Every structure is written in C-alpha cells, then in structure tokens.
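Justification of resources, computational component.

The compute hours requested in this renewal are based largely on the per-chain cost of generating structure records like the one below. Each record pairs the submitted sequence with a full structure-token output. That output is archived, and it is also reused by downstream analysis tasks.
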Amino acid sequence: MPPNKSSSTPDTRHEHKDAVDVAIVGGGIVGLFCGLYLAQAGYECVLLEKNSRLGEETSTRNSGVFHAGLYYPPGSLKARLCVRGKILIEEWARRLNISHDICGKLLVAVEPCEVGKLEDIYKCGSENGAQDLRMLDASEASRMEPNIKVAAALLSPRSGIVDQSELIQRVAGYAESQGLLTLVGAEVCAIEPEGELLKISTVARGSIAARFVINAAGLHSDKVAAMTGDDSHRIHPCRGEYCTVVPSRAKGLVSGLVYPVPSNAKSLGVHFTPTIAGELLVGPSAMYIDKKDDYENSRLPENIFFESGKRLLPGLKLSDLRLGISGIRPKRIPEGQPAADFFIDYSPEYKNALNLVGIESPGLTASPAIGELVLKMVKDVLG
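The structure output for this chain reads:
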C-alpha cells in the first residue's frame, strides 16, 4: 500500500535545489524504463549503475524472449505486468527501431500424460489476457514444427524475441534524450536520511541527494533494500546455462520458439530459442549457486542439454551442441520452495524509497509496465 499522503500536500519538487527528484539504483532494463517514464513525466532523475556498462547482468544474459503471460497466477504482478509489458515492449521496439521478431511460440506436450498440464496453462494464460492463444492437436503442431515430438501443443502466436543489447542501448539513449542522467561505475554503498531527502553514497562517484530512491538493483536488490531499512529480503542466485546449436545444423530445426511443459518452479524447462543474431539456443538449466557473479564455474556439459533437448527434437545430436551463454536469476526464494511473485513496494522505513526485488523472468517483457507502475507510485508520494 502507498504511504499516507494528504491530497492537500504541496508539490515540493523545486524546494531542494541541490537534490534530484529521483535516484534509480540499477542500470538494467527495468531501471532504464523506470528512468524513461519518470524523465518523460518531468522528474529530474539520475540512474546509478555499479558496472562499467548498462545492462551487463540479468538484462542481457537471457534468451531475449517476449513472453505472453502463460504461466503466472492470475492477478499476480508477474501476470499483470507481463501481459501489459508485452504490448508496451513491442510498441517501444517499433518506435525505437529495435531488432525484434514476433516469431510465435509452441508450448509442447511431448507425451499424452502432459496434455492436462498444457490445458491448465492455456486456461491460466487466457485468464491473464495473453493474446490469441490456441490449442493444437499433434498434426497441426507437426505442420508448424515438423521436427518436434508432440502429442498436443499450445500456440502463442504473439510471443517473440528481441536483441537485448540493442534494447538496452536504444532505451538508454531515448531516456537520456528525455533528461535521464546515467552514471556508470557508481556502486551504491549507503542510503541515509538527510532531512526530507535520502543521501545516496557511491564507492567511486561521490554522493547525491534525492527526494525519492528506486531500488532496481536486480541481483543486488536485497542488499540495496537493506540500505533503505528493509532487511526482509534475500536474493538466491540461480544460474541458467545455455548451449548453442552449431550453425550448419541450426537452420531448419525449428522455425519459432519451442518450449516443453514446465516440470518444476525453478524454470520453464530446456527449450529452443532462435535469436535475432541467428543463433539457436538450447536451455536454460536451473542451478542455485552461492555467488551472484559466478557465470562459469563448474559449467554443465553439453550432454545434459542434449538429454533434455532430444525429448522435443529427437533428431538432435550431441555433436550439434556447443556451450553458450549463462545468466543468473535473482530469485526471492531458495531451492525447493514455490515460485515467488515480483516484490514492488515502499520501504517500511522511508516512505520515499521503493524496492523492486526478485525481478526475474518475465522481467524483460514486463520492464516497461514496471516503469509505468513505478511512475504512478512515485507520483503518489512526490506529486
């Protein structure tokens, strides 16, 4: 719930001449869309990113998929923001000329015993408002993807892919044209009250005062939340690894996104994802790890991906695969517990701090809708 705010509270936006209106901690796609929407609304904003480049972590270390909103509990933040975000991110991709492809997605029941789960996902996605969903029998699905093994499938024709690096660059450039100031190499080490303001200190770029702070720090959002007085969060890093199919074999294997029916809450399962760059990804895995920056230690061998992938594509060969990228999901829950929703709420300690925690998949798809929501929540406090 937003903090209490009298309707007669004056707009004090210009009373603190040495302070910005909003400081955003985290320069991934979520932080950038927050900055874009806030700057468009006339707020003076600065974005603080600890790395030397924007979007180096979760935002670009993923499959680059536009999700339709199939899996998430109706009414959840993930469901609502994914469905709304899918519409918005397509609009932004067209507006900013970002490379993308609405290639469609088949969610596949490989065996007849999985068809019931597939029908449940269809009902869930339909209730969430996912666009143009359709159940297919085996013959219909095989005509679309002749190389897959299928008992039945769910078609999501409006799912697609985007070039994540291009998305980061174009959104950052447009946000900066609207007035957002971005600072890289600006790792936040403390957030402290300073009268009505919050003072944000960085390791190497000094400090800045802000009327409002947004924590969009991804894998480190638990640490930043604790700086705002909310120490109830812990991020559990979960690494997802991919293989790529060698180019000579990738062409013609699949024409769009091909996913299995999910078997657990950790991930959507090992699937086949064409990329804008022309690669074919197989993955991801899902393995909880100790460190938030451990992308390469003890990588899984290709045969793990082969065993999962050949359920969907029996013609896949082990020799087709090479190790690819890896990424780390910022999960709110430890291994073995049910999937958690996004957390987006004000700090219990400071009414002018907002924490975004556990923004994992479908975070890329949802990012512009998260920006919209954050703008509303900032307006509720600052006016």
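The domain at 20-59+165-234+339-382 is CATH 3.50.50.60 (FAD/NAD(P)-binding domain). The chain has nine helices and 20 strands.
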